[in-house]
Amino acid sequence: MASRKAFLLRMDPALWAELEAWAQNKLRSVNGQIEYVLKQAVLKRKAKSTPSAPPAPHPSTALVEPV
């Protein structure tokens, strides 16, 4: 198993309570839930910053070749 980075995190008690309830609902530890949420945020951020293919032209703006 890869080593894991340990660090201290301070947060508002109300936020902790929300995360704790959410984690229990998903059968995770609070630490596991925080890691899950952070991974999802990173993946979403990467997806937004990855250039995608240009959108297809709208049919009303497509050029029509003369016959």
What is the gist of this entry?
This protein is mainly alpha-helical. It has a domain of 39 residues. The protein is built from two helices and no strands.
Describe the structure.
The protein has 67 residues and is mainly alpha-helical. It has a domain at 10-48. The chain is 49% helix and 0% strand. It has helices at residues 13-25, 30-49. Helix 1 (13-25) crosses helix 2. The mean pLDDT is 86.
Mean pLDDT: 86
Overall shape: it is elongated
Portion of residues in beta strands equals under 5%
Number of helices: 2
Broad structural category: mainly alpha
Biggest beta sheet summary: none
Task: Give the helix level as a range of percent.
Answer: 40-55%
Q: What low-confidence regions span 5 or more consecutive residues with pLDDT below 50?
A: none
Task: Give me the Rg, rounded.
Answer: 22 Å
SSE topology string = HH
Distance between the termini: 67 Å
User: How many β-strand runs?
Assistant: 0
